[in-house]
Specification:
mainly alpha, 22 helices, disordered N terminus
């Protein structure tokens, strides 16, 4: 499923088209869609299912209909991106630029390409060139806003671009959505909420504004509203995993552990090789007091990713608490500390593991290191006092 207002939004692939392929013919406001544009749009479905032969046949027909149209060339570039052939994609983009140097769709596609390749300087240049070619298109301002927000980390500049999009077309949902995101990152919460609500009203079929609204409500500790917003997003898109993750986190925060476990297990079913999903299941079980189930979930997480430090740490801590597999707990805790030696809590767990193993001096050193990193860590301070008293 392509969940996007603008092609810079997260999706399964990097889309070189503004919006998406199906909307390519109508992308330019007031422009007459040509036969090549309409034929190119037909390639969206086979491309989405990975039927490259069928897509290529459609795009070849589009080229025959109008050799001067950049649309099928952009289609060929996107197909090569989906094939993981960015160098071939670049050739098609260069051909599109030669055919239609003044078409903002080509500049926009080049900007996305350079952004995908990590060349932010050229990406910004082409985003701005696209706007200069057709300054009346809100989607181009949103593209620039997405770039400022996600690639450059400049929510203030992103907000300006999204605001320009809204002024160009107050009914364009992507402008309101982007503005809400950028305002949220600037902690302008009432204004962010208003923009996101407007986006949700303008695009009632899109879960993205609802997802971000839920995040905003969670930030404000309005957890019931957050859960309702995530649930609404999932009604629109049941396989939208970010909403499932966020709702599970919200359930954890309000103590609805069974519901959190259900959401995180659903994520595991969808992406069984996700170490983060198994880790989240472990956290939910641990919060609910189901220690054995939590340990098993953490084990699955570290089986998938042997260097997931937080899962190693949590598994070691539970092993110490249950006083079984203490030697294994030490190994896991040592590994976590090697991966992230700057985390005080990991040294605290290592101290507890050494202490359970009877290695008092090693435990004392670990607790001291934890306190050197975080002097407010009460568990390490208390453990050191107990070790000193026991001398």
């Amino acid at each position: 499923m392509l969940l996007t207002f603008g092609a810079s939004a997260q999706a399964a692939v990097i889309d070189l088209w503004p919006q998406n392929l199906r909307e390519l013919p109508a992308w330019r406001a007031g422009a007459q869609a040509g036969p090549a544009d309409r034929k190119t749009a037909e390639a969206a479905e086979p491309l989405a299912r990975g039927d490259f032969a069928a897509a290529e046949s459609i795009l070849a027909e589009a080229r025959r209909l109008d050799p001067g149209s950049p649309a099928p060339l952009l289609g060929m570039a996107e197909m090569e991106m989906r094939r993981d052939q960015p160098d071939l994609a670049r050739r098609w983009l260069d051909e599109a630029l030669e055919v239609a140097p003044a078409d903002p769709r080509v500049s926009s596609a080049l900007a996305r390409y350079f952004r995908y390749r990590g060349n932010n300087a050229d990406a910004e240049r082409w985003f701005r060139n696209a706007i200069s070619l057709d300054p009346g298109l809100p989607v181009l301002e949103c593209d620039l806003g997405d770039f400022e927000l996600e690639a450059k980390g400049r929510p203030d500049l992103a907000a300006k671009a999204y605001s320009r999009a809204v002024r160009l077309n107050p009914a364009y949902p992507g402008g309101h959505y982007g503005l809400g995101r950028s305002l949220l990152l600037q902690n302008q919460l009432p204004e962010a909420e208003a923009s996101l609500l407007e986006a949700a009203e303008l695009a009632p079929e899109n879960p993205l504004p609802l997802q971000t609204l839920g995040e905003l409500y969670g930030y404000q500790k309005r957890f019931d509203e957050a859960i309702e917003s995530f649930a609404h997003a999932l009604e629109l898109a049941p396989d939208f995993l970010p909403a499932l993750v966020a709702r599970g986190e919200a359930y954890l925060l309000i103590g609805k552990y069974a519901e959190a476990v259900d959401d995180f297990r659903a994520i595991v079913e969808a992406v069984p090789q996700s170490d983060e999903a198994h880790f989240s299941v472990g956290r939910a079980f641990e919060a609910a007091g189901n220690i054995q189930e939590a340990k098993e979930a953490y084990r699955r997480a570290v089986t998938i990713n042997a260097d997931k430090a937080v899962a190693l740490n949590n598994l070691a801590w539970l092993m110490v608490q249950t006083q079984d597999e203490v030697d294994q707990a030490v190994q896991h805790a040592e590994h976590a500390v090697r991966i992230a030696p700057e985390v005080a809590a990991f040294h605290d767990t290592l101290g507890a593991a050494y202490r359970a193993q009877g290695k008092t001096e090693a435990a004392r050193n670990a607790y001291q290191r934890a306190l050197a990193l975080d002097a407010s860590l009460q568990s390490s301070a208390e453990a050191l006092r107990e070790l000193t008293t026991a001398r």
